[in-house]
Design brief:
CATH topology of the largest domain: FAD/NAD(P)-binding domain
Structural class: alpha/beta
CATH architecture of the largest domain: 3-Layer(bba) Sandwich
Strand order of the largest sheet: 3-2-1-4-16
Number of domains: 3
Distance between the termini: 14 Å
CATH superfamily of the largest domain: FAD/NAD(P)-binding domain
Strand content: 15-25%
């Protein structure tokens, strides 16, 4: 423990973000700055609490007190080595993770938690800057070949791990560039794509082979992949969005959120949009759904120059602080305000959309909404009851559906592989192995839509299962083992 009194002397502090009024004129990262002095002060706040509940909160089991201690002592190389032991991509989680580790921080019981996410980002950026990040090329190669389908965070993490184990890894991506959700789902103002490119380049130097525009089951034959590779790991996303089948759904101006975000990420990358273009410029925009994807739509709409941006959510407004129903160290369902919300957005809760209202030309002009009250009964799912007299219309020329995702695409790859699916429509896999012996699954395709940090964890653990299947044992550390190896 670097400074026993650090948590008493230092308050939580983060570098200032770029001014909201200025940053909506570009797509650069909202908070690109890493201030070493602030990072060291924040690391000193770690209590070395004996039972680090931050491990409980982190899906990766990051060894947080130890890398905090190394940062406080400004031993950045050691901090990097500790961090990379459990997390393949700290540059991603350090930018876009909601930090469940911080929700479990012991200091957070009665003070603001240690700024773990920011420290993580600082470590990896310092490591790249000082040359600590080098290609990890395996000492020897096996004769085994693995196909990974999908290049999102789960696929990339699995590729890295299986490559370290010495197998020949090929990643198939149906889009034109590698990254999956990281590339086309998350706006550049949260995750600059140069950060993704930097990591993909490093993985290629380590020996991972990448194939783009390779849609297995469409323009790449499934049987060909099965014949050529000893194992297949499915790491596609949960890509089928939840729809809103109400009157007026066919109107021009009603779009899925991910179509809107993907288009804009392509524009930022200088690519021509070939589908119907979706713009928020000069429009009253309503984002239906209160999660992270909805927040990303808010930030993008503001950068388009929307006339107004409103975000509506069916659930009640969350409390600002923990309640008795969400005690520490569990993840608290509290009100969270993103940088996109700070840039300008009206937020409304307990709202249901009844209909999309159009003009004579088939264009969306308004939403018919109503306020609801959530009713709960023991042993029964929550229900929503409309509040009499609360129905009204609000102007809207662009409605973005950000209500989550149902499951992966079933047609094509999954049908042709013949893997079973669970009751939610995800790929059924026991210890990451599907009902087809040589086929494995990880990430959103297996567990349903989730966080990037969970995708990385799934990719790492699935890689262990594949390694065990191929050679009868695995050299890749389990999450728990990795935690102990450096903590002892």
């Amino acid at each position: 423990m670097g400074k026993p009194t650090g948590f008493l002397e230092q308050d939580r502090e983060l570098p200032k973000k770029r001014d909201a009024k200025k940053r909506i004129s570009d797509y650069n990262e909202v908070d690109p700055i890493v201030e070493e002095s602030i990072t060291v002060k924040q690391a000193s706040r770690c209590m070395d609490c004996g039972i680090p509940f931050c491990h409980h909160g982190c899906p990766l089991g990051n060894i947080i007190p130890e890398f905090n201690d190394a940062v406080y002592n400004q031993n950045w190389k050691l901090a990097y080595e500790i961090l990379i032991n459990t997390n393949n991509f700290p540059e991603f989680t350090g930018r876009i993770c909601p930090a469940p580790c911080e929700a479990s921080c012991v200091l957070g019981i009665n003070k603001p938690a240690v700024a773990i996410e920011y420290i993580e980002k600082s470590i990896i950026e310092k490591a790249f800057q000082d040359g600590y990040v080098k290609p990890r090329i395996p000492a020897a190669r096996t004769t085994k070949k693995v196909a990974i389908i999908g290049s999102g965070p789960a696929g990339l993490a699995a590729a890295a791990q299986l490559n370290y184990a010495g197998h020949s890894v090929t990643v198939f991506e149906r889009a034109d560039e590698i990254g999956g959700l990281l590339r086309y789902g998350i706006p550049d103002f949260k995750l600059d794509k140069q950060v993704v490119d930097r990591r993909v380049k490093l993985l290629a130097e380590e020996g991972v082979k990448f194939l783009t525009n390779a849609n297995v089951g469409v323009n790449v034959a499934v049987e060909q992949v099965k014949e050529e590779f000893d194992a297949i790991l499915l790491c596609g996303g949960s890509t089928v969005p939840r729809d809103l089948p109400i009157p007026g759904r066919e109107l021009k101006g009603v779009h899925f959120a991910m179509d809107f975000l993907t288009q804009q990420n392509g524009r930022v990358a200088g690519k021509k949009v070939t589908a119907e273009e979706i713009w928020a410029t000069g429009k009253n925009v309503v984002v239906i759904g209160g999660g992270d994807t909805g927040s990303d739509c808010v930030g993008t709409s503001n950068r388009h120059g929307a006339k107004s941006v409103t975000q509506i959510e069916i659930m009640p407004k969350p409390p600002k602080e923990r309640t008795v129903s969400m005690p520490w160290p569990n993840w608290p369902m509290i009100l969270r305000t993103s940088t996109s919300h700070e840039e300008g957005c009206e937020r409304n809760w307990s709202i249901v959309t009844k209909a999309f209202v159009g003009d004579d030309l088939g264009n969306l002009k308004a939403l018919k909404i109503v306020e609801v009250e959530m009713k709960t009964e023991p042993g029964k799912p929550a229900s929503f009851v409309e509040i009499a007299g609360s129905e009204k219309e609000i102007p809207c020329e662009l409605a973005l559906l950000a209500m989550g995702f149902l499951h992966p695409q079933h047609t094509g790859l999954l049908e042709q592989l013949g893997v079973d699916k669970d009751e939610r429509g995800n790929v059924k896999a026991t210890k990451y192995q599907t009902t087809v012996e040589s086929v494995f699954a990880a990430g959103d395709m297996r567990r349903g839509q989730s966080l990037v940090v969970w995708a990385i964890s799934e990719g790492r653990e699935a890689a262990r299962a594949v390694d065990q299947y191929l050679v009868g044992q695995t050299s890749l550390e389990a999450k728990e083992k990795g935690m102990l190896s450096l903590a002892e």
